[in-house]
Amino acid sequence: MRFKFSLLAITFQVILIILFAIFVTYDTPHHDTHGNSTQSEEDEFIKLYPLFQDVHVMIFIGFGFLMTFLKRYGFSSVGINLLIAALGLQWGTLMQGLWHLHDGHINIDIIKMINADFSTATVLISFGAVLGKTSAVQMLIMAIFEIAIFACNEHLVVSLGAFDVGASMIIHAFGAYFGLSAARVLYRPALKDGHENEGSVYHSDLFAMIGTIFLWMFWPSFNSAIAEAGIDQHRAIINTYFSLAACVLTAYAFSSLVEHKGKLDMVHIQNATLAGGVAVGTCADMNIHPYGAMTIGFIAGIISTLGFKFVTPFLARKLKIQDTCGVHNLHGLPGVLGGLAGIVAVLLGAKPGASAGIQAAALAATIGVAIIGGAITGFILKIPIWGQPPDQNCYDDSLYWEVPLDEEEEHQNHYLEDQGKMKVEA
Amino acid sequence: MRFKFSLLAITFQVILIILFAIFVTYDTPHHDTHGNSTQSEEDEFIKLYPLFQDVHVMIFIGFGFLMTFLKRYGFSSVGINLLIAALGLQWGTLMQGLWHLHDGHINIDIIKMINADFSTATVLISFGAVLGKTSAVQMLIMAIFEIAIFACNEHLVVSLGAFDVGASMIIHAFGAYFGLSAARVLYRPALKDGHENEGSVYHSDLFAMIGTIFLWMFWPSFNSAIAEAGIDQHRAIINTYFSLAACVLTAYAFSSLVEHKGKLDMVHIQNATLAGGVAVGTCADMNIHPYGAMTIGFIAGIISTLGFKFVTPFLARKLKIQDTCGVHNLHGLPGVLGGLAGIVAVLLGAKPGASAGIQAAALAATIGVAIIGGAITGFILKIPIWGQPPDQNCYDDSLYWEVPLDEEEEHQNHYLEDQGKMKVEA
Amino acid sequence: MRFKFSLLAITFQVILIILFAIFVTYDTPHHDTHGNSTQSEEDEFIKLYPLFQDVHVMIFIGFGFLMTFLKRYGFSSVGINLLIAALGLQWGTLMQGLWHLHDGHINIDIIKMINADFSTATVLISFGAVLGKTSAVQMLIMAIFEIAIFACNEHLVVSLGAFDVGASMIIHAFGAYFGLSAARVLYRPALKDGHENEGSVYHSDLFAMIGTIFLWMFWPSFNSAIAEAGIDQHRAIINTYFSLAACVLTAYAFSSLVEHKGKLDMVHIQNATLAGGVAVGTCADMNIHPYGAMTIGFIAGIISTLGFKFVTPFLARKLKIQDTCGVHNLHGLPGVLGGLAGIVAVLLGAKPGASAGIQAAALAATIGVAIIGGAITGFILKIPIWGQPPDQNCYDDSLYWEVPLDEEEEHQNHYLEDQGKMKVEA
């Protein structure tokens, strides 16, 4: 694997540098007839920069740490997350920019940087579905394919005239169904009764909460970063803020309802509390009123928790889809809910100029493209040259990382030595 | 407990949605006589949004992780913190907004969102006083009562004409004395000699430092977020920045002075380093000069550390107040110091238009309302239907959460099995 | 030690308050001829405040947690980091401000606060070189000396007319060579074959990744915070963004190339992924094109990883420089690369008005001042009154901190007791 991984990463990076040399340049402010740059353009960059950084934190800390819940897969979760996001943001800049060339160039501004981060989110969501069962090489390949397909589907949806400011459909539903489709192709019968590493320990669950809370806090920035400045952007922030708050209450309530002895389950709390951010995405900038946003969050928290309890086992057993992080419950179902909420909101007149039929077409197209794209990518990943881990080494960092011996393991080793001596003595 | 907790959370959320439908709407920019919205209003939202997000991080990461220091109570600390803050920000929007209706409506803007987050801070502070000894149901009840009382007291203080831009009095002192008063009512004699779970482990102390550092860094945003734009807001940021820096030096110096063999104590470092932010709150936007701010921080670091060493044991033994997180030392004493510093600053002319007498009245009123409100709430929480944990299950996540078995525990189990076998063999 | 540390910290803080009373005041906006303050000045503070906070996070979370990788030195890493940064930002305000007095005063504005944070970065970098082998008292002394020398060197470089917007030379190379020079003087022969505490455990490596990721995300703010508003600042953000992304790919590729069985090494991932931010610093605001920035990052990731593998062992064995965190690989080599890249960029005309010769002089001067300054400081730190830890207590928090007994240790103790009993029984 040594040379395959390294060679692939270096090759990709060299190609990216060459493509950037050909296509990518800075966005220079336009000048008015007097030769002065317009103040407002210069301002936009620095005004949106804090929102960009919030999204950046969601991508690298949020997604990265959310997946550290597995007891022996934290290095890979946060580490491979960084790797594929770093690749993805460069590739996404090209794939999205090629649809919008100016004089043959992609002019980088803050909106393009936000969109580059967005495009990586799709791969990170799909990563969650196959977490622990794929190699770094496979993830690099997936990033290349998924982002290219994502950029096409996004262009399609925008061309149709659909609205999806917070990307419930084109990022969340897309990433989830792409990943689930790939996971189906990569199905491993040997893991159908679970794996000893497929669980958390106390502190790994706390690390995961770092990811959850940063995602939860900055979701209003995710849903509003590319909204139109002014009231639309304010609404996107306000709606997401209240949707997420309402979602927390129902996620906790239903976690306790469905669990043994009414206890709370960390898996639900880490994930379902975020469903309100996903589900309010499509209509975040629409005039749905704060109580409308809260209603969407209310339903999302319920659907997501019930998804973990009932849908994930069903997918695993009946459809042979092993969804490690439960992305179907955090991004799939709430993403679809978001698309449907958008249709309802448009029907109720919350977005002048929008069409419910086109919203529905965008949702259907997105899911279709995602499933087909994920399946094709899955088959490519299945080619046995990418170093896919064997079943018994799944969910285990030590296959790809130098892992330090823990003190408890050292103790254990000493203990075994001592045991040995004692046996001899005895 | 299963149904009680779930039913309560769902009921609260449904009521909130209904109240929001009746009362809450977006703030739409005012229009000038030509029908154009004013630029400055649209700008304010996005200008203050980064400060809002800093406060948001303090509430959810800061308070949440600060309390994860307990070895077996991390899930509850960060998890119940999220739950009550999500409830609290919705309820706080209503409770504060009802004092300022426009045409019967609460118009949400960025200032209202910041204030909603502020109102949750009071409950999170009080949560620290009763941490590990209350159920999630009790905390939901406390949030409802405390935020309602907080909003009344805040309205009273503002009506009096007192200044408290960083809320030393109306949030920090209020939250602390409310919580201590409730803790007094909920006194548990069985815990007076401590509890085996009431301590930290190495990594739980590091998780807590995540909370500490985020609180420390973003405190300038907390103290300046609702200050008047311009020089007042700049001063609030600068004063808080330097007060916190000075406070760190004295917190470390006095921690070493009072501890065994001159060692540093994590409890002091996690908490007393923040006292400078609390204590400079009331006069943050006043013309107290940077060295004035540093002097306040200098004293706060000392008072807070000495509070942990001498006052907390006194409260526990003599006044029967078991203050789990030592909120009296981080929010109570420094909050009072902040109120007193405000009086001195006003006497020295640092805030034109302010009155020292009114500042003193605000401080006294706040402490009085907090103690009475906390006691009443404490008695309500004592009604034996809210699922208060039994003494032996205090400070233990496993009462309310599915807790994974740690590897060390697994090892331990294997070890015990092996021991059993060995004994048999021997 | 008790009194020495406490007395020193209190004395420093008292002196700082006195010096602030004499020299430091708020920056009040200038007024135009009509007596109105200019809008743009008021705006600059709040526009740059988010970038300041990003830098603040890098200093306190980034540097603090990056160093928590050691298994038993996390309290000191994040705790002493906080202590010396809190001292350093006050001292840096004075040391930098004294070169720019207005009417005998230092007028604090947002740029001065950003620079104050920057000046602490030099000490935190040097701290990494001597981590685990110095006392808190020694670090306070080092902070005082290093920041004073840094401010002189910075003034020298600016006076020469050199450009270094992201401070590859004056912060990163300076801090690294200062620290390495001090580490050389403080060489400990007994540690030349390593120390049992000089390694990580699984979760300490995850804590360190919190530091890495926050540094990685916010580096564009570090490199652009004091750039000229407008296109220069935008370029600094864009260049850093893409340099860091490219750097990740090569850091991973080369980590796998040089390690046993092609595995990834956490030390490389935690550090070398950041080298792109360091190396693009000097020419961040220059017109080097995005692909130029990526090329710099590409090289930085390679150099840094190879540095860890080959240069660090060489320094330790041949030059007697024990560089605990490998700051030479993260800040030293990439800092020099940044200085050289600046020279090349200036030669290629990327910065009108700049001179390659002056850039080279600035780089040489900085390294010279750092090595001499570090050596002098090292000899001062070697005076045996500062409580330097004995060899066997290096890398161990329990020398200076109250450290809780871990559960595993408790288990171990029980186990040893049980063993004792069993032996007796046997």
Annotation keywords:
homotrimer, 426 residues, mainly alpha, two-stranded parallel sheet, 14 helices, 1% strand
Summarize the model shown.
Chains A, B, C: GO terms for molecular function: ammonium channel activity. 3 copies of one chain form a homotrimer. By secondary structure, chain A is mainly alpha-helical.
Q: Write down how many β-strands of chain A occur, each being a DSSP E stretch of 2 or more residues.
A: 2
Cα-to-Cα separation, first versus last residue of chain A: 47 Å
Low-confidence stretches of chain A: none
Order of helices and strands of chain A: HEHHEHHHHHHHHHHH
Radius of gyration of chain A: 23 Å
β-strand percent of chain A reads under 5%
Question: How would you sum up the major sheet of chain A?
Answer: 2 strands, parallel
- Mean pLDDT across every amino acid position of chain A: 93
How are the strands ordered across the major sheet of chain A? 1-2
Tell me, what's the shape of chain A? globular
> What's the oligomerization state?
homotrimer
Q: Give the helix tally of chain A.
A: 14
Structural class of chain A: mainly alpha
Q: Which two chains have the most extensive interface, and how many residues on each? A: A-C, 71 and 66 residues
Helix content range of chain A: 55-70%
Describe this structure as you would to a colleague.
The structure is a homotrimer of 426-residue chains. Chain A has a two-stranded parallel sheet with strand order 1-2. In chain A, helix 1 (2-23) runs parallel beside helix 3, helix 2 (39-66) runs antiparallel to helix 7 (202-224) and helix 9 (266-272) packs across helix 11. Chain A is 70% helix and 1% strand. The first copy, chain A, is mainly α. At the A-C interface, helix 1, strand 1, helix 2, helix 3 and helix 7 of A face helix 2, helix 7, helix 8, helix 11 and helix 14 of C.
